């Protein structure tokens, strides 16, 4: 649900970006999946090697906030 995605976004460290796609979870075409994966890869490549060690530590500690969302 969108509320869960928004809670995860708020709990996540930087850098981050939320992108909403006009699709469901079960009815995605191959083209939609490839576009979403491509967007994710391009986003990750923008930050390759640019996250500091202190930010990485902060993100790991923020991950514990996400535990309540795990099943």
Could you explain the architecture of this structure?
The protein is flat and about 40 Å long. The two termini are 15 Å apart. The protein has 71 residues and is mainly alpha-helical. The model has no long low-confidence stretch (mean pLDDT 81). The protein contains 3 helices and no strands.
Structural class designation:
mainly alpha
Report on the biggest sheet: none
Parts with pLDDT < 50 across at least 5 consecutive residues: none
Overall pLDDT level: 81
Beta fraction: under 5%
Radius of gyration: 14 Å
SSE string? HHH
**What's the total count of β strands?**
0
Number of helices: 3
Q: What is the terminal-to-terminal distance?
A: 15 Å
Q: What does the overall shape look like? A: flat
Oligomer: single chain
- Helix content class: 40-55%
Comma- or semicolon-separated keywords:
single chain, 71 residues, mainly alpha
Short précis:
This protein is 54% helix and 0% strand. The chain has 3 helices and no strands.
How are the secondary structure elements laid out?
Blueprint: H1 2-11, H2 30-46, H3 53-63
